[in-house]
Amino acid sequence: MDKPVLTIFYQFNPWKPTIGGIQTLIGNFIKYAPSEFDIRLVGTGTSVSQTMKGWQQAEFAGKEISFLPLFTLENDNVRGLIPTTVKYSAALLGRCYASDFMHFHRLEPTIATRHWRGDKTLFIHNDIQTQIEGRGDKKTILWRRFPDIYYTLEGSLIRQFNQILSCNNNAVGSYQQRYPDIADRVAYIKNTFDGDVFKPLNAEDKLAQRRSEAISRGLSPDTSFVMFAGRLHPQKDPILLIRAFAALKQPNVHLLIAGDGELALAMKDEIAKLKQEQRITMLGATTSVQLAKLYRISSAFVLTSVYEGLPLVVLEALASGIPVVTTNCGETPKFLKSDSGIVCSERTVESIAHALTRILLQPEKYPSYACVKTAAPYSASNVVAQVYTQMFYRWETKKLSTVS
């Protein structure tokens, strides 16, 4: 049977634990792909022998896919001297992996694809303008040092895409304003969580599992947990998170940090400097199954980011029944309800610590069902299905026009 082919391009290996919302989103697009589509993924390998094999048939999330590792990448959680995006883009030059549909999650690799024929979609995961032009640490993104070059590159590549989808409404507006001739191609898309994995516990089971987790970590059975998950990167400002938690005066509260990245060592130094070794645990890279377990037993999830799109970890935490404390950035403040979390008025130690204190002291104001209800519209099974339905319609329409 003739099937449309979707090829997804991103610099990761889906069978290796990795940190990032993009990876999670791609996983959802594979898992919830309808049988009418053939799925291909152009990613990276974990060994030279794997990379040399070329296209390989493999199973991911219960789906048979074709996988092509372009080069070997041992750890994509930490940036190297040469950015991974540069390596990935260079590996695509001179090749052609065009298909009926192509999904891209970075702009730079599409330098190599502008002449490929097919239906191309670019996913924008942050408010790029804020990301590039914002103040603060220029290491959060390399293009902060060369904004003019980025916008020139973007302008030369953007018109090759049939769709430009962003999970950030500000980014949608920015692209429509910068490129009015293709404004109709730019649209908002909801980020997603996997409802099969992220779901809440009832109160009795949550208490029992929380106590069990605390005892297994050598903590008091009455310990409550606060969660963070994400890349340990300047964008997320995890140093601010540590300082805010150190300022928290609530007893028997423990911070779990799931993730890896370039700030890991600096964070360990900060934890030691603030004498928080007994109150904070760094878990390293963590699988989605492990994350789901930790979300369900936690009292709150906290995010101290400088900028964001719509963080998948926020949706996962809410779907697991726990409220969110967030800085005022990205899409989260636009949909978070008063009974499912707190948006901090300032990105400061005091503001974040105060918000956490409110949730810890009055958990009844942030019930599990309210958190789940807030996340429900972002379920991957619904959102991804809608995207594939639209793709299949475009494919059939194109076939009919070719025949006629």
Describe the structure.
With 404 residues, this protein is α/β, with parallel strands linked by helices. It has two domains: 5-192 and 379-397, Glycogen Phosphorylase B (Rossmann fold), CATH 3.40.50.2000; 203-378, Rossmann fold, CATH 3.40.50.2000. Helices cover 38% and strands 18% of the residues. The protein contains 15 helices and 14 strands. The chain has helices spanning 21-31, 48-52, 84-92, 128-133, 147-157, 169-178, 203-216, 238-246, 264-273, 288-297, 312-319, 332-335, 349-361, 368-375, 380-403, and strands at residues 5-9, 38-45, 56-60, 63-72, 101-104, 119-124, 163-166, 186-188, 224-229, 253-258, 280-284, 300-303, 324-326, 341-343. The chain has an eight-stranded mixed sheet. A six-stranded parallel sheet has the order 11-10-9-12-13-14, sandwiched between helices.
Brief overview, please?
Helix content is 38%, strand content 18%. The protein has helices at residues 21-31, 48-52, 84-92, 128-133, 147-157, 169-178, 203-216, 238-246, 264-273, 288-297, 312-319, 332-335, 349-361, 368-375, 380-403; strands at 5-9, 38-45, 56-60, 63-72, 101-104, 119-124, 163-166, 186-188, 224-229, 253-258, 280-284, 300-303, 324-326, 341-343. α8 runs parallel beside α9, α8 (238-246) crosses α13 (349-361) and α11 (312-319) packs across α14.
